[in-house]
Structures are given as structure tokens and as C-alpha cells.
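As described in the Methods, two query proteins were run sequentially through the folding procedure within a single session, without resetting any intermediate state between them. The first query and its resulting C-alpha cells are shown here.
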Amino acid sequence: MQSIHQFKVTDIKGGEIDFKAFEGKKIIVVNVASECGFTPQYKQLQELYQTFSDKLVIVGFPANNFGGQEPGSDDEIQHFCQTRFGVGFPMAAKIDVNEHPVYHWLTNASENGVLDSELSWNFQKYLLDEAGQLVKMIPSSVDPLDDSVLDWLGA
């Protein structure tokens, strides 16, 4: 079983996000969309990121897979996230979650060694420990500041 630290992805600005750089920190991977009913979760994700920056990294993956709710370009998404929610956590370039290697790993127990899950909507959250191992999946309907997430962070 390998960890998420094996992956490198293109960031929203055309650079690189190397998950190996996050060794020793907990990670939340979340698929995001600008026109979703759950879009206000950006605010809570940013609050988590700021509050727990010493031990947590959040990586957002914009995707247009559910309801066509992320139609924008990378530049438009970045502008929206920064101006509306002050997002400062790493954002990947827009992806297709059904085709992306990180999401293939996250959703298949044969890859992640923990659980099979179906990505069913925007703002589904995957929680990973300091070693890059998947711990659990949190559904879209659960707010990022929910007790289950805060307990996992040791808050």
C-alpha cells in the first residue's frame, strides 16, 4: 500500500503540488465547485486551514463532474475562491474526478488499503494522516467544522 505522498499534481496556477512535501501533516483532499449549494464550505475549509496550519494541509480539486457546477477556467476559479472566500490553501488545476489518479487512489481500497468509496457530489472530503494514509471519507453534507473533523484534528 502506498500513500498519497506518491502523487504530484498540477496546481491551479500551472505549478506543481507535491504531496510528499506534506509528510508529517494531516491532509484533507476535497473536490470543489463554485456554483454548488455546498460552495460556502470554502469559508470553513479556509478557517480550518488557518487555524490548524501547523498540522494540516487542505488541497482543493475543482471539478465539473456534478451538476455542471464548476464551469469556469482555472483563472476564473482562482479569482472566485480568493475574492469570495479568501482561499489560501493549495488548489489543483481543474480535473475530471473520474479520471484523475489521486481520486482513483482515494476511492479504491485495493489502492489505498482502507476503503472503497463512491465520489457522489462536490465537497466530499477525504481525511489522511501524517503518513499520507487514508483515514476516512466525510460526505459533502458534513461541514468541515463538524465535530468529527475537529476531533480528528485533536481540536
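Immediately afterward, the second query was submitted; its sequence and C-alpha cells are:
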Amino acid sequence: MFGSYLFHREMRGTNDKMARKETITIQNILDTAFAMTREEGFENVTARKVAAKAGCSTQPIFRVYKNMEELWDAVYVRAAEFFQDYYSLYPRTGKTPFANLGMAYIAFAREERHLFELLFVSGKVSSDKKKSMYELLNGESGNVVYEINLARVAGCPDPGDLFMKMWIFIHGAACMTLTGDYDLTDTETLALLERSYEAFAQKQ
């Protein structure tokens, strides 16, 4: 009888371990790695740290991902999708071409520092999953194309050139938020973007 008790207790322990393993899914691992990227930075997404955060060993990670590069690729894709959702939900506050795009981009850098660095600054993802800055900005909805068309309708003879000039300014402002050197309010930022557009447009 005692032997039977030990057998059942051992089997129950084995079943418990199996149940715990089954709860660690590819979604759990990706969610954990993405959350770590947002909170701590992409460079902190290592197998050991992800496992510790997810409450498992490294074994489940490599059961669903071939290697860490594959997980990093998945985090990058999730970050790109997150930016697209962020942009689509960002409130439109003006009618000047490129101003809303700039407002959303600068706000994203301020509010999602680590994701911004991963997507637009660091270059730490080198696989075929990596997208150019233009691809990330334009997205599937054609965000940049929409703004370029607005500028064309407004009478700009070379909206593509104007976009490049605006974007150098916008990207610089966004990067300044990473170092704490950008302290303009949203109202001030919008006014600055509108003035910059008018100044660049007049020189064409």
C-alpha cells in the first residue's frame, strides 16, 4: 500500500511537471521577450533572462524556437506591428503635410524608448525580417505616401524632396528625446513642424 502511494505521488509529480511545461507556449515566450524589450531594452533579451521572467527553464524556448535569432526576429516583427498600431491610433492634430507623422514618431520615441531604438536606431536585427526606415514608416496603409499626396495637393512641386528634408528634422528631434534634450510640448512641437514645412516648401 505504501509502495502504491509512492507510485501515485511520483506520477502526480510527473504530471504536474508536464502540465507546467504545456503552459509555456510560443505565445508566452514571445510575449515575455517583447515585454522585456519594452521595459529593459532589446540587448537584455537573452535565453536565461527570458526563461527566468517566464518562470521556466531555457528548454521550452528552444523547443519552439530554433535559436535566439529566431526569437529576436519575432520580437522585431512584433515591435514593427506595435508601431503601426501606435501610429494608426495616434490622434491627428493638424492638416499640414508630414506634421501628424512627425508628431506620432516623436511621441513614440518618448513613450516607447526601447522599441524606438530597436526599430529606428540600433540596427541590431540583421536578418531578412529587418525593414528600412521608410518601410516601417509607410506601413501597409501607405502612411508616407498619404502625406506626400497631401503635400502634392497643397501645391508642393517636389513632395518627395520635401519629405526627406522634413524627416531629417523629425528624426533628429525624436532622437533628442532619448538623451533628454527635447523638452518641447506637443503644442510647441506641432507649431515647429508646421513652420518647418512652410519654410521648406517656400524654398522649392
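The longest helix spans residues 2-23. We note this only descriptively and draw no conclusion about the first query from it.
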